[in-house]
Amino acid sequence: MTLHDAADWFTDASLVEDPLPYYARLRAQGPVVREPHHGVVVVTGHEEALAVYRDSDHFSAINAPSGPIPPLPFTPDRHDIGPQIEEYRDQIVYGDWLVTRDRPEHTAYRSLLTGLITPKRLKRNEDFMWRLADRQIGAFSGCGSFEVISALARPFTVMVIADLLGVPEEDHREFCENYALVPAQIGDTQELAHDPLEFLGRYFTRYVEERRQDPRTDGLSALALARFPDGTTPSIADVVRLTQFLFTAGQDTSARLISAALRFLAERPDLQERLRGERDLIPNYLEEVLRVDPPVKCGFRVARVPVKVGDLDVAPGTTVMLLIGAINRDPRRFEDPDELLPDRAGAREHLSFSRGIHSCAGAPLARAEGRICLERLFDHTEDLRVSEARHGPAGARRYAYEPTYLLRGLQELHLEITPRAGPPAPRAA
After folding, report:
1. Residues 6+ away with beta carbon under 8 Å from 414
2. What is the pLDDT of residue 180?
3. φ, ψ for residue 182, nearest 5 deg
4. How far apart are CA 336 and CA 328, in angstroms?
5. 3-class SS of residue 153
6. Rounded to an integer, what distance in angstroms lies between the CA atom of residue 108 and that of residue 110?
7. Which end of the chain, C or N, has fewer beta carbons within 10 A?
8. Which of 157, 236, 178, 169 is nearest to 204 (CA)?
9. Which residue, 134, 159, 157, 176, is CA-closest to 369?
10. Does residue 2 carry a pLDDT above 70?
11. Residue 399: exposed, middle, or buried by beta-carbon count in 10 A (0-12, 13-18, 19+)?
């Protein structure tokens, strides 16, 4: 028995740095398998994953960001455990996040985003991104090196979602410096609170109360004044929970995308040179990065009723893990699945933004953030290189990843740069 035969996805830290052998081992057993440690049904097949994502009648998203840890606070005792899930929702970690809500409540809460994510607001936010990228990159472009996550990816994405929402500028620094507990830490013995985003609550409560009394033209006002489809007004607490989730989700995965995209470019001079010369490939390149190294490695559902997943019979209460990192490399769907091809046809068929009713509402924002960061880095620099002093030579790199079974992200990425002589190239029309 090899290490990966015995490995426990939820506790084995050896799978954090390189999960690819684990993906391959599971896929070799079939597109849907049952792992031996927690009774979790694991999906590695693209077609089978789509079927689960799109089936909100038979699967609940109550455990979407946590999986089997901690377990449901009840013993399934009926054919349809949907009512039990709702009865115990307030005892389930992340239970009142948008991502864990089921129909019909999910439909009602997601409708509150209609006034926030509009073409006009996204266009104004994108104009801000171009200015912000120049400011962030200009601060280090003449230094010869920079650390991607702390100097660019994280502050950039925090400021972008803050601008979209309308968070007052005087609060930006504290938002950058205070982060909630990252979900699904491997080896973490700290008990998770019901709402690990509580830190943001006091800010957003004040913002929403102020906007209801004195509306502005910002995103927080749109959320504060939004109504459910039946015409009722959400409580302050409902709106606050939504903004907390949007703020955190809106910056975290985008920062991970940017750092992954820059690592690949710094490791592959040929790829970097091609994208510098063919900027129209950048959007598709980012889709490929999302496919081969997704910021979210897996997502979860729990069976509400007896149901089949692939060829497996699944009982109510069973956790189903959609192993996105493996699904995106399904050779039945993607030719040469392990190759990162910036001109791949159908690159957007990856499942890194989920599907179904829980498809990522912020996908257009993340795509724009990645594209603009790459564009302006290319305009400010001649090349990007991995720092061998910090990460070792090619063929013997040393990268540290966050120890979580849910998310995929570097803890640090140090790059060396050659600044462009003179002012940065002008923004492309």
Report:
1. 145, 146, 147, 148, 386, 387, 389, 390, 391
2. 45
3. -70, 130
4. 11
5. helix
6. 6
7. C
8. 236
9. 157
10. no
11. middle
Retrieve residue 146's tokens: 């920079």
- Angle (CA) 418 423 426, round 5°: 105
In the chain, the domains with their CATH numbers are 3-419 (1.10.630.10)
Question: Would you state the structure tokens that stand for residue 306, as one six-digit string?
Answer: 């007896």
Order of strands, sheet of 381-386, starting from the edge strand that comes earlier in the sequence: 145-147, 414-419, 381-386
Q: Which residues contact 398 (CB under 8 A, 6 or more apart)?
A: 391, 392
Element (H, E) at 266: helix 236-267
Instruction: Kindly state the tokens that stand for 49.
Output: 């994953």
| Euclidean distance between CA atoms 264 and 273, whole angstroms | 12
Which two tokens mark 410? 């570097």
Task: Give the containing element (helix H, strand E) for 388.
Answer: helix 388-391
> 3-state DSSP helix/strand/coil percent for the chain, to nearest 5?
50, 10, 40
Express each pLDDT in 168-185 by its tens digit: 878 777 776 665 445 566
Backbone angles phi, psi at 246, to 5 degrees: -60, -40
Q: Quick check: 22 pLDDT over 90?
A: yes
For strand 319-322 and strand 41-43, is the pairing parallel, antiparallel, or unpaired?
Answer: parallel
| Cβ atoms of 337 and 99 closer than 8 Å | no
> What phi and psi values does residue 386 have, to the nearest 5 degrees?
-70, 135
Q: Are strands 41-43 and 32-34 parallel, antiparallel or unpaired?
A: antiparallel
CA atoms 67, 70, 73, 76: torsion sign? positive
Token code pair at residue 333 = 């769907």
Q: In which region does residue 94 sit, left (phi positive, over 0), alpha (psi from -120 to 50) or beta (all else)? A: left
- Please compute, for residue 22, the number of CA atoms within 13 A of its CA located in the half-sphere on the CB side: 24
Q: Locate 357 and state its tokens.
A: 């009713």
pLDDT tens digit sequence for 194-211: 454 566 788 899 999 999
Task: Find where tokens 């040179």 sit.
Answer: 273
The beta strand positions in 59-209, using DSSP E, are 59-60, 145-147
| CA-to-CA dists, residue 271 to 254, 341, 427, angstroms | 21, 9, 21
